[in-house]
Structure formats: C-alpha cells, structure tokens
Amino acid sequence: MKVSGYTLSDSIQDRAEYERIVDKTKEAILSSYSDDSAFSGINPYQLRRQIEKIGLLQEDGLGFDRTLQLVKDEILPHLLRTWSRSYMPHLHSPALLESLSAEMIISAFNDSMDSWDQGPAATEVEAMVIKELLRLFGFDRDCGDGAFTSGGSQSNLTAITAARDKVLMNKFSWDVKKKGLIPDFHRLRLYTSEISHFSMDKSAHLLGLGYDAVRHIKVNDRCQVDIPSFEKMLKEDAEKGLIPFMAVATLGTTDYGSIDDVGKIRRLSDSYGMHLHLDAAYGSALILSDKEKKRLGSIELADSITIDFHKMFLLPISCSAVLFKDKKDLEPFLLHADYLNREEDEEDGYLNLVGKGIQTTRRFDALKVLFSCKARGRREYASIIEKSLSNAEYVYRILSGDESFIAPVKPELSSVVFALKGGDDLNRRVRRTLLEEGCVIGQTVKDGSVMLKLTLLNPNLEKEDLENLIKHIKEMR
Questions:
Q1: Does 323 share its domain with 405?
Q2: How far, in Å, CA of 405 to CA of 98, rounded?
Q3: Within this chain, do residues 53 and 135 fall inside the same structural domain, yes or no?
Q4: Which pLDDT belongs to residue 350?
Q5: Rounded to an integer, what distance in angstroms lies between the CA atom of residue 291 and that of residue 295?
Q6: Looking at residue 394, which CATH number applies to its domain?
C-alpha cells in the first residue's frame, strides 16, 4: 500500500496528508501510556523476540496507517517515558513541551548546518545563539566562537583536538593539520579527574594519543580534583620530559555532580602552558540562576567550555555546544571544498559553519535553544533548575539521616548517590525490582561498592514523590 504523497510541498493534498500524519502520530503517542510509570517492565528477552518479529523491509509497504498501528502496538508501549516522575537514572532529561514544537519544525524543514545555502535562516540563528552563549558564559562574543555538536562527547573531542593543535603550534611550531602528530607524540599528556567523563579517554584514542596520554587525578572527599595531587603529578611528569597540553575541569561529574575548582586548575594550567577546558555538560545550566551560578566558580577563566542542552536545560536529544574564548582555536576544523564552502562566498558574507567543527551535515539544534529560552525566559528556567537542586538536597538530608542508608557524597547538583546497608546483592536487586515495576533509577560503584543513584532533572517531581520512593526502597531490605 502506497503512502499518500512523498514530501511536503505546495499541493493541497500533500499539506492535508501532513496534517493527518501529525494528528495521527500525536494520538498514538498520547494513547501509548495511561499512568506515570517510566517503563512497561517487560523482560529483555521477551522484548527482543517481539521486536525481531517486526522485521524491516518487505516487497510491498503497509502504508502509513498500518505502519503507525504496528509501531503503536509493538514499540511505543515499551519506550522509556522520560517525562515520568519514576524515571531518574541518568542525565537523560524529559523534554520541555515547547521544544517538541521546535523538533517538529527542525524535522519538517530538514535544513543542514554545513553551508549557508543549506540553511540560510538556520545558519544565522545558530551564529547568533553562539554569540549570546559566549556572552552568557563570560567570553567576549567578538573574540570567541563555537559550534553546536551531537553531545558532550563530541564537544569534548572538539576541544581536545583544538587544544592539541594549539599547544603543539605554540610550543614547537608544529602544524598538526599538515604534518600529523609530532614524532614523540607519546609524551603528550591530558589531565582530568579520575571520575571525569569517559569521553576524555575515548578522544585520546581517536586522536592517536592513546589512553596512556590521559592522566587521571585523584579526587578529594567532595569528589573534586585534589589540587595537591594534581600539582605533584604535573611536577613529576614535567621532570620525566612529558608534555602537559591540556587540563579538564569537570563542572558536574556524571555520578556525583561534583564541581572542580576552576581558579586553582587555571593557575596550574598557566604554569605549564596548558589549554584549560571545562566539561560543563551537566552543570552549565546553573548559569541561568543568579542564586546558584556561583557554584560553577570562575568559568570565564577557561579556554573552552562544553555545554549540553539535553541535560539540565531539558531539551530533546541531541543538543550540545562547545565554546572557545579565542576563535582562532577553531582553525583546525577549517577546510574549503569547491562544492560546499567556497572562499569567495564567505568573502561576500555567506557564513558556512562546516569549518567550525567535526561534523559536516548537522541538524538545526540551535532552534531548540532559542525556542525554549524565548518561551521560558531566564526567571522560569532558573526556577526549574533550582527545584532540581532543592530536590537533591532534600533527598540527601533524608538518606543521610536514616541509619538504613549510606549517602557518601553531598550533592552539588541534582544527582544523589546512596545505598541500602546490606551489601551489593541487595542494592542490585532493588534496582532490578524497581525496573520491573516501571520505576527506573541508576546504579554505579563507589569505593568498590554498588551504589544506587537518583538523577533528579524532572521539574514535576515533588518532595512527596521522593519520600514515597525512599520509603519503598527501604521496605525492600
């Protein structure tokens, strides 16, 4: 059965079919759930068999209506409902309602962000949003620059690539873009917390430096980079003839939400000629709250910053950006192609964003940021963020005051790590039981012991919800 029409167009029939498809899809989504559970609780083997029966390609299509019905029956009931008050395992947020409108616009127009003629207004919006973000995070909007990316991992990879090329040029007059890595590249070192995001190690591998290039610094009892340990490590590495080229301060570690001291890490970075990058994928949203942004410290001292909008900003995946204090740091990504970003076009004012990052084809994700910021404003956005932090502090107070629980780290952001006293097997069983009941929480390890984790990003969560969950967990002993 043929789908009516091919694409949006100016025809009455295509416009009507688009409206019908949107309405039917909306109905399917809204009818796929009837309670606040986060998950159906289906067994993974059963779900796998169910999905495998669907298959992919057949000789004759089912048409839109039958295909949507198939998806509605077999897939939608088992998708995670990130808006549920029972979903709190990861830095994986629900999406603000207005951002769903932005997503609809992005997918319908399908503009690409690599060249001006593939997204004229989209290009200008992204350029404007980047400039506003530079100002928001304390960088000079005329001296700095940045780009949207697929997520924190790509933002960090972009920053590490730029830092490597910059430092090698500054220290050795070595052009990595033309010559590749220096002969003794194995001496290069990147410094980051022992609990920082794994993308640091992955990036080192992808850049040909290897995991050994990443030096993991011990953390203190607040899960922050231990500055004396870092200073000692740098001194020892320099004496061995190693080349420190980059330090990464994490503003919101994945498990604990801990925030490194930017000022002190800046001082050490300057002493060894290192690029200072802030992985603020988690904590960057605090910049919107006058009350809480001081937790981030002296972020304006950084050379680059990773921001994720699909975490505390509550925007749909994917939506991230990397900002640089000095626009020259983006030079490693610039390469002109006759079919794409011709130099003569740029001389005439046509802005081609492909030269500012790793990706070529990119979605118009900046629209989601613009849409939600304009719709909510700073004040309402701040209240959303402050509620998440308040909820985390409330949960921590309950857990740390109850002898049934271990709560080893006071939360700095919205993540709370804890465990029931009784051992690893008990805590593993608690998480699995909750999953089967439709409640999804996280699991990690601290000091060799299994821990449970609540990541409280949902603005609909109330203290009563959290009290009931903790009471339920306690009853599972």
A1: no
A2: 39
A3: no
A4: 85
A5: 9
A6: 3.90.1150.10
